[in-house]
Structures are given as structure tokens and as C-alpha cells.
Amino acid sequence: MPLKRAVIVPGNGAGNIEHCNWYGWAKQRINEIPDVSCTLKNMPDPGYFSRPWEWEKMRTNVKFIIQFGSTDDPFLPWEEQQEVADGLKTDLQKYSDRGHFQNTAFPELIDVIKRLKTNS
């Protein structure tokens, strides 16, 4: 089944994510890709770190999980990012110079979405 929808779920529990960092920019760019729509979903409970992960349950909801992480993130240790990648068996896009991805554009994400659409 071809890619039809991209869902972006930041794990920060921040309020209106469409107006934070690159999320709104990415939604607009993804919605410009023919036959693909973007949904932004706020992680409703930032306290999810305090209980066991349910990796298989999460994986059953989606066909692809792409994770972006940077080893120089000042808020999220790389070990935690790697644990999530291992548990969810994500396609981990690892960087060493992006910090917490608090920029206003994220072209690498758009490239990945286009690649998934072409290859799915």
C-alpha cells in the first residue's frame, strides 16, 4: 500500500506544535506532495518515561517509523534515543550536529517522506 499519510509525533508534550520549530513548515511541505497528507499529533503525556515501553503495541499502529536523533541533543541523551530506536525497530536517522532539532526548516524529513512514497 503506498504511503498516504505522514504523522509527526514529537515526544515533548509541547502545546500547539504546528507553531513550534519546524513542524508547521514540514506539514505544509508534506501536504504539497501529491496524494500524501500530514498530521501533527502532540504527545499528550510527557510522563511516558515513567512507565514501561510497549514497543510491539506501538509498532502495530504504523507501517514505517522514521526517527531522527542527534548525539549532541542537550535534552535527550543518545542512549535513550537509541533505546527507542532499538525497541521500535525504527529507521534511525542519526546526526551529530543537530542538537534538539529546534530549527525552522527540516528538509531531510521531506526527503525521507518522498523516498517512502516512491518506495512503498
Automatic annotation (TrEMBL):
Coiled coil: none annotated. Signal peptide: none annotated. InterPro entries: AB_hydrolase_fold (IPR029058), RBBP9/YdeN (IPR010662). This is Retinoblastoma binding protein 9.
